[in-house]
Amino acid sequence: MEGGRRGSAAGAGTIVNLAGASILLVALLLCSCPTSTEAYDVLDPNGNITIRWDIKQWTPDGYVAAVTIYNYQKYRHIQAPGWTLGWKWSKKEVIWSMVGAQATEQGDCSKFKDNIPHCCKKDPSVVDLLPGAPYNMQVTNCCKGGVLNSWVQDPDNHAASFQISVGRSGTSNKTVRAPKNFTLVAPGPGYTCEYTKMVRPTKFVSPDGRRTTQAMVTWQSTCTYSQFLSQNSPTCCVSLSSFYNDTIVNCPTCTCGCQNNITQPGSCVEGDSPYLASAINGPGRDTLTPLVQCTSHMCPIRVHWHVKLNYKEYWRVKITITNFNYRMNYSQWNLVVQHPNFENLTQIFSFNYKGLVPYGAINDTGMLWGIKYYNDLLMEAGPMGNVQSELLFRKDKSTFTFQKGWAFPRRVYFNGDNCVMPPPDAYPWLPNASPTVKSRFLIPHAFFWRTTSSSTRSAQEAKQSRATRAPTWAALGRKGYKSGGGIMHSSPLKYTFRGNAQPCFSVKVSWSFRSSTSDCTFPSGPASISRSL
Ligand SMILES: *[C@@H]1O[C@H](CO)[C@@H](O)[C@H](O)[C@H]1NC(C)=O
Ligand SMILES: *[C@@H]1O[C@H](CO)[C@@H](O)[C@H](O)[C@H]1NC(C)=O
Ligand SMILES: *[C@@H]1O[C@H](CO)[C@@H](O)[C@H](O)[C@H]1NC(C)=O
Ligand SMILES: *[C@@H]1O[C@H](CO)[C@@H](O)[C@H](O)[C@H]1NC(C)=O
Ligand SMILES: *[C@@H]1O[C@H](CO)[C@@H](O)[C@H](O)[C@H]1NC(C)=O
Ligand SMILES: *[C@@H]1O[C@H](CO)[C@@H](O)[C@H](O)[C@H]1NC(C)=O
Ligand SMILES: *[C@@H]1O[C@H](CO)[C@@H](O)[C@H](O)[C@H]1NC(C)=O
Ligand SMILES: *[C@@H]1O[C@H](CO)[C@@H](O)[C@H](O)[C@H]1NC(C)=O
Q1: Minimum mean pLDDT among 220-229, 278-287, 315-324, 419-428: which range?
Q2: Where are the beta strands (DSSP E) in 361-493?
Q3: Is 200 exposed, middle or buried (0-12, 13-18, 19+ CB in 10 A)?
Q4: Right CATH number for 49-229 from 2.40.128.110, 2.60.40.290, 3.40.50.2300, 2.70.70.10?
Q5: What are phi and psi of 401, to 5 degrees?
Q6: Domain coordinates in residue numbering, the chain
Q7: Ligand 4: distance of its center to the CA of 261 in Å?
Q8: Given ligand 3 and candidates 88, 89, 90, 181, which is best to mutate, with the most ligand atoms within 8 Å of its CB?
Q9: Which whole-number Å values give the CA distances from 325 to 301, 312, 379, in the listed order?
Q10: Rounded mean pLDDT, 34-45
Q11: Which ligand gives the minimal distance to the CA of 363?
Q12: Contact criterion met (CB below 8 Å) for 433 and 20
């Protein structure tokens, strides 16, 4: 099973019998209770998408407005095929023209003779233009195919704008009426928009910052997301394993649906089925209905958390996200994980990281996402359909324990949707709670950079002292390089610093018989990685 690979299984098989495991915390039970279905999200209580409609200029029969959609959600984004914004006109308005977006249907414009409006529908639906739209059709923040990134992940791309010229609407702030009943399809259901209200006019500052203009009228509507409205079954589940117990705790059976050949033939497809290609292109291809590989859980996404290694001062986790959906490449995916040790996260390999601080001082929740052009695309089900990372945590002696499932996450979200956890009483048990046994699992030194080649081991140890001087740098490696004790990388050499991927300042590669060593320099001094051939 991918991602469930054993780490150092040192002696795990020889240890028998554990009554200690019967104690799986009541607290843990509470922490991990599943799925809150209301729009309110404890990890992002103010998360919302705000639609702002700024009338910038009056015209003989109406106005020109700039409409902007801001994604103020920390970790929920809108991926391809993108957003569709709808509303209802209050009067008999028409859209003369649009820049940066277009109405999907023109509607009945038969009353018009000379100038034909862009759209005459009473309830227009508007979509973004595709990248590469003609230059004269573009405005700032448009033309991204409806993709709207999350606020934390990509603060520069969390807004979408278009310009709209409206007729037959009234031409003063006394006669115009706000568009009503906004709907946001993104791309499925899930968002509810509250009624449009007039707010203080937006102020626009000129690029040189020397002049401020303001909108004639500004309306605003806020949309919030509810997973409950979005899907009637979960879309993601969590499986667990550890170096100290051979059991792989799989996702709960039927988490996202059951294999049922009788009532729902073709609800899933075997990975080696000769009909795979025709099933992918079969009915439902153009809807967003997932076509999943047959598994016991039937989820499109599985997140696997493997407690991999135990060092004296640190411990290490491997996270694997697997895509079982043949019909979706998840672009700009993200993961939110809650675990008390995120306060002391020391290193993360291959993913970007940012702490989320839902309750003031306690930062026990982190957001992880892929590195641009490297693993920010979680490919459709198949051999490429997974991404993985390792996390190194510094043990806080007062809280750290392998007992009672403490090492497993409390809450996991994929793309903002809750992932169903196994029941706490199924978590892998620690074979023995006694300290003597615990020490058997201890690996005395934390090698920040590990290779599979023993001939480079001494070089590793020599470099260890250098590595510890800048412990927040993590090697990402290049093709063929194994870092983090087993992750294969295939991107240019890069380092992460405080969770963000950084290119090296310069890279020096020296070759020897069995290995090559790359020296990467960066602002706080040199570090090295080795690569086995
Ligand atoms: C929407 O999010 C913004 C940014 O966090 C916040 O200022 C605003 O109050 C939120 N609106 C609502 C209605 O929650
Ligand atoms: C319309 O604009 C005038 C002048 O700027 C202002 O006094 C009035 O309050 C505005 N009316 C509304 C309904 O906003
Ligand atoms: C618009 O939404 C309101 C409630 O928010 C509802 O009462 C009304 O019927 C809706 N109007 C239309 C035309 O759907
Ligand atoms: C469904 O059908 C496939 C092939 O027809 C078979 O391999 C599988 O065991 C069936 N599953 C169930 C739950 O009956
Ligand atoms: C996913 O991306 C690959 C490579 O770009 C492409 O061949 C494939 O058709 C895409 N799959 C889906 C479901 O869009
Ligand atoms: C947790 O918060 C503290 C202070 O707010 C900060 O110094 C630390 O870097 C944060 N830790 C992580 C892992 O984000
Ligand atoms: C872990 O983080 C907390 C809060 O930032 C801090 O008080 C504590 O000293 C840290 N523990 C270790 C072992 O670094
Ligand atoms: C591993 O954990 C499982 C619970 O998931 C338990 O049934 C089993 O006895 C444990 N194995 C050992 C060797 O402790």
Answers
A1: 278-287
A2: 365-370, 377-378, 386-394, 411-414, 417-418, 473-475, 482-483, 487-488
A3: exposed
A4: 2.60.40.290
A5: -160, 150
A6: 12-35+234-440, 49-229, 454-532
A7: 6
A8: 181
A9: 7, 40, 9
A10: 59
A11: 6
A12: yes
Question: What is the 398 CA–ligand 7 centroid distance (Å)?
Answer: 10
Atom of ligand 2 at shortest distance to CA of 217? 14
* pTM, full prediction: 0.73
pLDDT value for 358: 67
Phi/psi at 56 (5° precision):
-105, -15
Cβ 367 under 6 angstroms from ligand 6: no
In ligand 6, which atom is closest to the CA atom of 355?
14
**pLDDT (tens digit per residue) in 84-132:** 999 999 999 999 999 999 999 999 999 999 899 999 999 999 999 999 9
Q: Is the sign of the CA dihedral 128, 132, 137, 138 positive or negative?
A: positive
75/476 Cα distance (integer angstroms): 24
- The 10 Å Cβ neighbour count of residue 523 is 9
Q: Residues near 198 by Cβ (< 8 Å), separated by ≥ 6?
A: 178, 217, 218, 219, 220
The rounded distance, in Å, linking the Cα atoms of 363 and 343 is 6
Among residues 113, 20, 87, the alpha carbon closest in space to that of 435 is found at 20
Task: Determine if ligand 4 sits within 6 Å of the CB of residue 253.
Answer: no
pLDDT digits (tens, 9 = 90+) for 397-453: 888 988 888 999 999 999 988 899 999 888 888 776 443 334 444 444 333 333 223
343 lines ligand 6 (CB under 6 A): yes
Most distant pair of Cα atoms in the chain: their distance: 89
Q: Judge if 12-35+234-440 and 49-229 fold alike in CATH terms.
A: yes
* Closest Cα to atom 3 of ligand 3: 181
Which of these CATH numbers, 3.40.50.920, 2.60.40.290, 3.30.830.10, 3.40.50.1980, describes 12-35+234-440?
2.60.40.290
Nearest protein Cα to ligand 1, atom 7: 46
